[in-house]
Predict the structure.
Amino acid sequence: MDLSIVIPIYNEETNLPALNARVSAVLDALPMQTELIYVNDGSHDRSLEMIREMAARDPRIHYITFSRNFGHQIAITAGLDLSSGAAVVVMDGDLQDPPELIAELHAKLNEGYEVVYAKRRTRQGESAIKLLTAKVFYRLLARITSVNIPLDTGDFRIMSRKVVNALKQMPEQNKFIRGQIAWIGYRQTFLEFDRSERAGGVPGYTYSKLIGLAMDGITSFSDLPLRMATFSGFVVSGAAFLVMLYAIYARFFLLHSGTGWPSIMVSVLFLGGVQLMAVGVIGEYIARLGANSRQRPLYIIDDTDIPGAMPTESKSVERALRG
Ligand code: UDP
Ligand code: MG
């Protein structure tokens, strides 16, 4: 297999016909052996039926379907796990990532890179708030992480088998794949494209899912929030110490001690806020530690037509064999 295309699908019934037609046309034109893997992430519309039909009609097309909605990053992970191409393309299923770019991405990869990501030159049809928060987030992330996560890119990219194999060795539960790929290294480059509007349907990424993704990105690649919690502790207690010195001085040398209600309220509330914030930050990290220590499988596959590919089963068999 020369090239695999992995497309996560969550309620994309309105986009699937056009998507499949455009991707198939691109694959037809490529002089190599290709496969197209749709990962159904617990859609509750007709997406699953549609991809099953497509897979039945075209031997190049395969499907994986989850037992429920596990999220975009996990759906990509499953597709990568079961792909067999020497190179793998990951793209969205809502036609925001133009399939026609696949050939260019593949050609660029052959120039001697392991990853070619597609960078958004422009983005159409997104709300001003989403554009602004995305912009701020990627720049913040770039500042606080030691890994060079490319600005203004999603998961639309092509990567070599080497990179896919490296990704498979990173079993963390809280996936931020674009960060993991940056962390892996090798020669990486990018192509620019204009990201169009979602063709039909509604975004599967709700704001709470997006915030979750952002938090995963930060906590997986930076300890700065923890350090800031420590740092704010030092600053606040330093300030409190100075106030204490003044309070003692005022009591014994100036012989006046005011009524003190405002100062007590302010310091109690301020300290309470700082403490809660610090505890919250620590909690975010501990929650992720907990998720990883439970060692649950990342996803449960309900059904797939990819031969020999029920990883949850093979894992439990593996465990049983190990004793
Ligand atoms: N998606 C998914 N699971 C989810 C949410 C989204 O597999 O829980 C898929 C969705 O079908 C699409 C891609 O991930 O192919 C990107 O989702 P979306 O277009 O909603 O994200 P946005 O473009 O708004 O960032
Ligand atoms: Mg989209």
Observations:
- The beta strands are 3-9, 34-40, 61-66, 87-90, 115-123, 153-160, 188-195, 301-304.
- The chain has two domains: 3-222+298-322, 224-294.
- Residues 3-222+298-322 form a domain with the Spore Coat Polysaccharide Biosynthesis Protein SpsA; Chain A fold (CATH 3.90.550.10).
